[in-house]
Amino acid sequence: MRDKALVRTYRDRSYVSTAMVQHGGTTVAFAMDDKRRIYYSVLDLEQASAKKGDLDSAYWNAEPALLPFPSEFVDPYADVPVAYPMPVVKAGGTIEVRPQELFGAASDPFLSTTARLTAPVPIQVVSDGRYILVFRQSIAVGHADMVYRTTGNTLTGSAARPDVATVGGVKAAAADASLLCDRYALVGSALKPVVEARYQRSRSKFTPAAGGSDTLGTRDMDGKQFYEPTTRLSFLPRLTDGGFAVLLLPTQVEGVSRWQLFVNNAAEKRIESYNCERTADGLFDVAGTQLWTSPDPRFRKSVLEREPGTDPNTNRPLVPVPATTDRAGTALRFTAGTPSEVRIATAALPSPSGGATFEAWVKATAPGGTVLASQDDSTPTGFRLGLNGQYQPYAANGSRGWQVTSKLALTPGVVPTLVPHTATITERLAAYHQIPDTTGPLANHTPIGAPTTPPGSTPATAPGAALTLPTATIARGTQVTVGYTIPPEKVMPKNWVGIYTPGATLNTGSLHWQYAPDTGGTVSLPNSGNLPAGPYQLWLLANDGYPTLAGPYDLTIA
Q1: In 361-376, which positions are buried (b, 16+ CB within 10 angstroms) versus exposed (e)?
Q2: What is the pLDDT of residues 64-88, one digit of tens each?
Q3: What is the number of helices (H) and of strands (E) in the chain?
Q4: Angle at 372 between CA 369 and CA 374, to 5 degrees
Q5: Which of 36, 131, 480, 481 has the most CB atoms around it within 10 Å of its CB?
Q6: Does one domain contain both 387 and 496?
Q7: Mean pLDDT score of the chain
């Protein structure tokens, strides 16, 4: 009997897993039962009394408390973060109702909150000194308690509803065996969800309501408290059987710590490591922060700042800390000549208000090709970004195309380069490149799908313009040299000759090219000696654009 008094035992339900954390000197224990409900108990030694005695076991909560979960869900790492409200279910039932239909009744604390997303696997709890963070794996798609996004930016547990959003033809589930995070403040012997500030009218953390009269506050216009939504850590892979671990690690900078996560990626049969900064409010910063240090190597170990400034040792400006070469990360490698692509589903995302930005980091190892494109780039709202034969970025929309830069933009195989593009759902691409003259040559890039031309012939679309080649077949490794003739009225300093694969759309970029600025002469196409054996076509095109002066002219490299 005496030994039993040293241990606090709860027998009110069947518990299947436990977790424990020290938070500011206080111990908090957690347990999940066989119905996926999570309970907690606090060892509150601040309430010492003669009646309870000296044994610690007397200072746990008399009964475990049900851990409250938010009624909203967010993926802050999505392209468009939206705090989706969970469906409302009346206590004791399973049918979804509108909040005004509760008529004073309570909502179900499990089905009306993100608690329903808890998978029956062990959880993990971490203290950052200010809050207690609960990490749990979500249920998978197909589970009876899964919720799905609707086109009205809400969540529903009814996958059969006609307004359920789809991504690539699949119903858009809120999560799928994902890692979820919730934060709590310890108040006495109770855990309280974290209150956050939002715009009171729009109820959004990021966007105020239209009209300019929205202000930040912790309650909406009806006086309802704003709580942090459950956060989905979507930058992590799909979880299996609770195979994850979360740590908060110190750094060499005082007061600065970083998140370290390990995930069992069962699909790839490997354990993956993720290390990222903490945001200003303590969550996960996957973008990172540029640090600054002394320009003098002698002082770099003692100088580390988060903003630009002056080095106190040398009185010279601080310099950026270079990125480490052993940083964890992966990239996709596309093999030349092998058709490959990555499709990014956007059908379920809310329509952007005014525009959307698309970016791609590119390490070019071969000239030409598409980098980023909409699924159908021939539509009025479609777009395509790519590199031409000179490693220069270009943008195109249907039959229209524009050169983004006029000089060499990429160093082959060396420098990863950011190629940005902005377009809207309803506006033409041209409007966002600020082309002043939409009737000039650059606005009339008509793709030519001309039939194959017999060797030796050069049908010209501009009378008097022609290409000449000594032979229709050259040896591999030989630089392509071609003669040209242009009538005086068509001469422009940026007329050019380009070489393409047969049937290629001209505004997707040539393999190699060179300017032909005079009425006639000979040009050699730089680096064309590196082309592999095969059939090609030569074109004479106008003024840095794609109007055809002459071509196509067949050429074979053997």
Answers
A1: ebebebbbbebbbbee
A2: 999 999 999 999 888 778 889 999 9
A3: 0, 39
A4: 120
A5: 480
A6: no
A7: 80
481 phi and psi angles, rounded to 5 deg: -125, 130
Backbone torsions φ then ψ of 523, nearest 5 degrees: -125, 145
What range does the domain containing 485 cover? Answer: 466-557
Number of domains in the chain: 4
Q: Are residues 90 and 156 in the same domain?
A: yes
- In DSSP terms, which residues pair with 22 in a beta bridge? 27
| Measured distance CA(140)–CA(36) in Å, rounded | 14
- Identify the band that residue 434 occupies on the pLDDT scale cut at 50, 70 and 90: very low
Rounded to 5 degrees, what angle do the CA atoms 281, 285, 289 make?
Answer: 100
**Which DSSP category does 508 fall into?**
G
Residue written as token pair 């750094």? 251
**Exposed, middle or buried: residue 339 (CB in 10 Å: 0-12, 13-18, 19+)?**
exposed
pLDDT tens-digit series, residues 373-414? 877 766 766 777 877 766 677 777 655 666 665 444 455 554
The predicted model gives 240-264 an average pLDDT of 91
Q: Are residues 196 and 133 located together in one domain of the fold?
A: yes
Q: Which two tokens stand for residue 83?
A: 């705090």
Length of the chain: 558
DSSP state of 454: P
- 299-305 long-range Cβ contacts below 8 angstroms, 24+ apart: 304/252, 304/253
Report the distance separating Cα 392 and Cα 408, nearest Å.
6
Is there a domain that residue 264 lies in?
Answer: no
Q: What is the dihedral of CA 296, 300, 306, 307, to 10 degrees?
A: -10
Q: Where are the alpha helices (DSSP H) in 472-543?
A: none
Q: Look at the pTM and tell me if it is higher than 0.90.
A: no
Interval 253-277 mean pLDDT:
88
Q: pLDDT tens digits for 26-47?
A: 999 999 999 999 999 999 887 7
**386 and 319, same structural domain?**
no
Asked whether 41 and 29 are in contact (CB, 8 A), the reply is yes
Q: How many CB atoms lie within 10 A of CB 114?
A: 27
Which CATH number covers residue 515? 2.60.40.2840
Residue 103: is it exposed, middle or buried by C-beta count within 10 angstroms (0-12/13-18/19+)?
Answer: exposed
Instruction: From 24, 15, 109, 28, select the one nearest 66 (Cα to Cα).
Output: 109
> Does residue 94 belong to any structural domain of this protein?
yes
- Distance between CA atoms of residues 262 and 245, nearest Å: 5
DSSP symbols for 65-97? EEPP--SEEE-TTSSS---EEPPEEBTT---EE
DSSP E strand stretches across 84-138: 84-85, 88-89, 96-97, 124-127, 132-137
The three-class DSSP label of residue 277 is: strand
Which residues lie closer than 8 Å to 393 by C-beta, 6 or more apart? 371, 385, 386, 387, 403, 404, 405, 409, 410, 417, 419
- Closest to 112 measured CA to CA, from 69, 66, 78, 166: 69
Query: What integer pLDDT is reported at residue 149 of this predicted model?
Result: 92
Q: Is 45 helix (H, G, I), strand (E, B) or coil?
A: helix
Q: 308 by DSSP, 3-state: which?
A: coil
Per the domain annotation, does 452 fall within a domain?
Answer: no
ω into 552 cis (within 30 of 0): yes
